[in-house]
Hints:
single chain; alpha+beta; PH-domain like; 2 domains; 5-stranded antiparallel beta sheet; 12 strands; 35% helix; elongated
Amino acid sequence: MRGAEAGSTTSYAYKASLIGSAHRFELTEEGLSWHVAGRSALWRYDEISAIRLSFRPVSMQQHRFRADISRAGGGRIAILSTSWQTAALMAPQDGGFRDFLIELHARMAKAGSRAELTAGLGRTTYAAVLALLAGLAVAMAGLLIRALLIGEFAGVLFILGFAALFAWQVGGFVRRNRPRSYSFDCVPKALLP
């Protein structure tokens, strides 16, 4: 379900699960129109109070992005960059997701929106992730030193390999999800596919 443009309407849809209908979003002249799980609404661009972009990989799709959109007065919707195809396949929709969000930001800027634009994880969550990673690094360093002292070189190789794999997998998540603010004309490329 790719994004498509028809006149002045830009649309995007994805399936959040195998069961149920697709979540559909349209950018119209009036605002953001959405249809999710039997609910629908039209939010004017100047009513949108916040957008948070983040990188959210899952086991079935390591390259998944998320946009959380909040409305003044209540309400929040999430837009994902992947769609369920079968029980074992989650397909990326990179181009449609990116184009939809860029256009949403452009229309909000044109409408004079004063929305809070943030990227990455919340500051408290990010600090907790960094503290956990620091604790793991200290533990791994301790294991590495112990393995070197007792001459267990197979263990040293295992620890180094595991550390490299862990740094590769988790490092991208931590780097992309650094908390920060951005502006309408400078959407963070690291949080768009």
